[in-house]
Amino acid sequence: MRLLVTGGAGFIGSNFVRYWVEHHPDDTVVAFDVLTYAGNRPNLADVEDRIAFVQGDIGDLEGVTATLAAHDIDVIVNFAAESHNSLAILDPTRFFQTNVMGTQALAEAARRHGVARFHHISTCEVYGDLPLDSDEVFTEETPYRPRTPYNASKAGGDHAVRAYVETYGLPATITNCCNNYGPYQFPEKVIPLFTSRALDDQALPVYQSSQNKREWLHVDDHCRAIDLVLHHGTVGETYNVGSGVEASVEQIADAVLAATGRPLSLKETVPDRPSHDRRYLLDSTKIRTQLGWEPTVEFEQGLADTVAWYADHRSWWEPLRDRAPVVEGAWEGPAAGGARP
Ligand code: NAD
Fold first, then answer.
1. N or C end of the chain, less CB within 10 A?
2. Does 152 have pLDDT greater than 50?
3. 247-257 pLDDT tens trace
4. Would you say 137 and 283 are in contact if contact means Cβ atoms under 8 Å apart?
5. 3-state SS record for the chain
6. pLDDT of 237 higher than 70
7. Is the pLDDT reported for residue 338 higher than 90?
8. Does ligand 1 have an atom closer than 6 angstroms to the CB of 61?
9. Site to substitute for ligand 1 among 4, 41, 83, 316, most atoms within 8 A of C-beta
10. What percent of the chain has pLDDT over 70?
11. Which atom of ligand 1 is nearest to the CA of 82?
């Protein structure tokens, strides 16, 4: 395969690039990334000599088309997105620009060039949220009911991809994954945020709705799921990718404090962000039964390893912290309505 991995300098994209060159050393990998504040070339430092890197915007139809031709790409894996729910509250426009219009432009470039596969990365969040105490789960047939600018923009991108399948026969697949954790996650997201702050003996900002839960999957297990879908998935299909392992914001804070040997008194309650979803839980029966996928990283061990990775990689996350455009709770204070550019 000759893959274009968009968003390849971000968290999951860079882990996927590393995964792919290790598991498929004969394939060609081109990482494509516009390098927003969340994109970081050093994420690819240990594989730079085995890949090509192109700096570009998925919304730039001509630029993407030229890249597809120059590298004779036959598979696109689209991770490129604005991905931070909190930032989306303050600056929704950039989310719709990249996640909807950018995804459409990328699909259009893929259609013009002709690819064997267009794989689009989506999220459990497009299905809306669940009550904390319900037995409901999201299947691939659950209607989309997004509630936040981030998950509405992801839903729009998914619809664009599906329209290209139906209308133009684009050979696309989609995976909707639960919350990922692991190395190289930007320190604005909850696990690296809590870990980096705990390591510096700073307060952990725990949302008021501290029992709101997420389903957690190690990024390596996500990469293996995408590999299976690329090799054995059916064009036009969507696959949910979830671990079934849930943990609340408070449980994550407690686990990080325990792993770093810091006191529980570092927890500090902050106001919820508006439209804070309570819970998502995926039914992943389809990918498990049809493609034989199952998660391999046990959550407690994966979390402990992840906390240890951040403790060992201070020089990686310290400079990134200053680039984070949003401070939790900004929607309540004088900064409400705006984010740092
Ligand atoms: P991230 O923010 O770490 O990385 C996103 C990358 O995309 C960055 O490198 C950024 O520079 C790049 N990018 C942004 N706009 C771009 C554009 N217009 N053109 C080219 N590149 C652009 O995000 P992530 O956590 O790695 O998420 C990757 C994908 O996975 C996203 O589509 C996200 O919605 C999805 N997802 C993430 C999770 C999770 O828990 N992190 C869960 C499910 C789905």
1. C
2. yes
3. 999 999 999 99
4. yes
5. CEEEEECCCCHHHHHHHHHHHHHCCCCEEEEEECCCCCCCHHHHHHHHHHCEEEECCCCCHHHHHHHHHHCCCCEEEECCCCCCHHHHHHCHHHHHHHHHHHHHHHHHHHHHHCCCEEEEEEEHHHHCCCCCCCCCCECCCCCCCCCCHHHHHHHHHHHHHHHHHHHHCCCEEEEEECEEECCCCCCCCHHHHHHHHHHCCCCEEEECCCCCEEEEEEHHHHHHHHHHHHHHCCCCCEEEECCCCEEEHHHHHHHHHHHHCCCHHHEEEECCCCCCCCCCCECCHHHHHHHCCCCCCCHHHHHHHHHHHHHHCHHHHHHHHCCCCCCCCCCCCCCCCCCCC
6. yes
7. no
8. no
9. 83
10. 97
11. 14
Q: Count of alpha carbons within 13 Å of 198, Cβ hemisphere only? A: 26
| 42, two tokens | 């050093």
CA 263 to centroid of ligand 1, rounded, Å: 33
Q: To test the ligand 1 pocket, which listed residue (6, 12, 64, 184) has its Cβ within 8 A of the most ligand atoms?
A: 12
Longest CA–CA span in the chain (Å) reads: 57
Average pLDDT over residues 32-43: 98
Atom of ligand 1 nearest to the CA of 154: 34
- Encoding tokens for residue 244? 């079934």
CB proximity list for 117: less than 8 A, separation 6 or greater: 74, 75, 76, 171, 172, 173, 230, 235
Task: Find out whether the beta carbon of 80 lies less than 6 Å from any atom of ligand 1.
Answer: yes
320 lines ligand 1 (CB under 6 A): no
More confident residue, 234 or 275: 234
Mean pLDDT of the chain, nearest integer: 95
Distance between CA atoms of 323 and 341, rounded to whole angstroms?
A: 10
